[in-house]
Amino acid sequence: VVALNNGGGGIFHFLPIAEREEVFEPHFTTPHERSFEQAAAMFDLPYERPTTPEAFAAAYRERSRSGAPALIEVRTDRRENRALHERLESRVAEAVRETLGA
User: Fold this and answer.
1) DSSP assignment, residue 45?
2) Contact 71/56 with Cβ under 8 angstroms?
3) Across 42-62, average pLDDT
4) What is the pTM assigned to this prediction?
């Protein structure tokens, strides 16, 4: 299992209310500092929290090869997540336009 942990409420950054920081942060994002480590322990699963893309790739390869259940937690930034989605959406739209000749 790969768990993406943005510290809570990241999905709400896609709503217009995200522009109103004074209301948004305390009432919509509900930030937390929890991790999935205790969840992994509860189910007696090996747990890893890589901090670089290279470390994630290595952990994912190792766990995939083993065939045994495991939990890999990836911490992400809520704001960076929205920006990444917007860049991906733009690139996909451009690829579609190029493919369709529009």
Assistant:
1) -
2) no
3) 97
4) 0.73
